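To the wet lab folks,

You asked to see what we're planning to order before we commit. Fair enough. Below is the target structure as tokens, and below that is the sequence we designed to fit it. If anything looks off to you, flag it before the synthesis order goes out.
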């Protein structure tokens, strides 16, 4: 995340204090842009909505961006036909099918952060189409990641990253004995069972010291594949607590990842 983005979030916190409100933490703040017709949710609120599944979270970015890295539980739809990529907007008709025509459905939209217009454009189109419960997480996925939010990667995204991003680090979270019998690509092993709660402890600390983790560039893309999605997510969340800002876990089994990469 850029310094400007962090500065924008911190300015919001400062303004709250300046106007006599209880100062928020960075997890409780929003961008608070004037003139917006749809309300924002904070990172803390979004975490709650993702956990209780009471709201449909829409990733308003193109399908490939979504496939490479998205918030756990978020949904994505096709682009509005005939719109150039520079003013990309999701297809409201597709959202209608997603929510079975229920325009009162609670929706939260997100995109690429404070300087991205995709969520705003989609919000305006949804309002014009009669949707009545639309909010935005305008801080977007850059701030989500910076505040320790983990992301998911889809099969298509995994294939794309392995084929095109030579700097990406692939982590195999299976046990060492299983890993030694064969892995995928140039994966490095951080066994789930050796990852401990806390910071700078256990196998994660050792991986930081021995070069398995990219200590000289914490923005490096890191993808975790495990025996199953639970193991992969556990290790991915541990890595985000070590200030790696671009961590995603594969939402499938190791065998499924292997099948994707063998095509």
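Sequence we intend to order:
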């Amino acid at each position: 995340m850029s310094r400007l983005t962090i500065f924008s979030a911190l300015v919001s916190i400062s303004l709250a204090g300046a106007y006599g409100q209880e100062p928020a933490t960075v997890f409780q703040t929003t961008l608070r842009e004037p003139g917006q017709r749809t309300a924002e949710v904070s990172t803390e609120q979004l975490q709650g909505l993702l956990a209780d599944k009471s709201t449909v979270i829409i990733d308003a970015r193109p399908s490939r961006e979504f496939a490479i890295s998205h918030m756990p539980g978020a949904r994505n739809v096709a682009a509005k036909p005939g719109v150039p990529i520079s003013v990309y907007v999701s297809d409201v008709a597709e959202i209608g099918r997603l929510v079975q025509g229920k325009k009162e459905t609670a929706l939260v939209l997100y995109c690429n952060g404070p300087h991205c217009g995709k969520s705003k454009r989609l919000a305006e189109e949804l309002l014009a189409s009669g949707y009545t419960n639309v909010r935005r997480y305008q801080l977007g996925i850059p701030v989500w990641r910076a505040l320790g939010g983990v992301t998911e990667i889809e099969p298509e995204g995994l294939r794309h990253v392995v084929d095109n991003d030579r700097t990406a680090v692939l982590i195999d979270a299976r046990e060492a004995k299983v890993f030694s019998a064969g892995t995928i690509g140039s994966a490095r092993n951080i066994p789930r069972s050796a990852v401990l709660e806390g910071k700078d402890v256990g196998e994660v600390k050792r991986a930081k010291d021995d070069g398995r983790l990219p200590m000289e560039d914490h923005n490096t893309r890191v993808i975790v594949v495990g025996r199953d999605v639970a193991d992969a997510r556990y290790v991915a969340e541990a890595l985000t607590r070590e200030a790696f800002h671009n961590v995603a876990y594969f939402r499938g089994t190791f065998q499924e990842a292997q099948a994707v990469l063998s095509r």
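Structural context that might help your review: The mean pLDDT is 92. Residues 26 and 106 are 24 Å apart (CA to CA).

Thanks,
Computational group
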